[in-house]
Design a protein that fits this description.
164 residues; alpha/beta; six-stranded mixed beta sheet; 6 strands; 29% helix
């Protein structure tokens, strides 16, 4: 049974203003445009998720809600999690292993370098560094998300708004 995990790096964020916490950084105008373009790309490719998980950092939340609006996914159903802000490949794997098995496609919106490390861990491929608003579509031929682990995924598509 095929499952798709879309790992998405948040769109381009503004620099921290004096006294502003990193967690509170917002998107630049370019970031908003790129997140919107990614959402339109997902809509065009009919990549509608069963669930969306996102870091609760402001820049990730804006990316997630922008994408959700473009693909007609109820923004109230996005699962925002502060732990995704400072996650690790191990914590992301625990999240994925806990997905409901009837879900066929799930989005995770997070931060570098962990989102890149996690894509590399799952696929065994060297990605280097995911650009802002980029996406790795990882395919698993597994009956259960509980079985997802190192090297069992295959990159089906890598989308980078700079080149698409």
């Amino acid at each position: 049974m095929t499952k798709q995990l879309l790992l998405i790096r948040h769109a381009q964020a503004s620099e921290s203003a004096q006294g502003q916490k990193d967690f509170d950084r917002t998107l630049t105008n370019k970031g908003i445009i790129d997140a919107s373009q990614l959402g339109m790309h997902l809509l065009k490719k009919s990549l509608h998720p069963d669930a969306i998980f996102s870091s609760s950092a402001v820049r990730a939340k804006i990316t997630a809600t922008t994408i959700a609006e473009k693909i007609n996914f109820d923004v109230n159903k996005i699962k925002f999690d502060k732990q995704l802000y400072e996650s690790s490949p191990r914590s992301l794997l625990a999240l994925v292993n806990g997905f409901k098995d009837h879900w066929k496609r799930v989005f995770i919106i997070g931060h570098n370098p962990v989102i890149t490390y996690f894509a590399e861990y799952l696929t065994g491929n060297l990605i280097d560094s995911m650009s802002p608003a980029s996406m790795a579509v990882i395919m698993f031929d597994l009956p259960s998300w509980k079985e997802a682990s190192a090297g069992l995924g295959d990159i089906d598509v890598y989308y980078n708004p700079q080149y698409n």
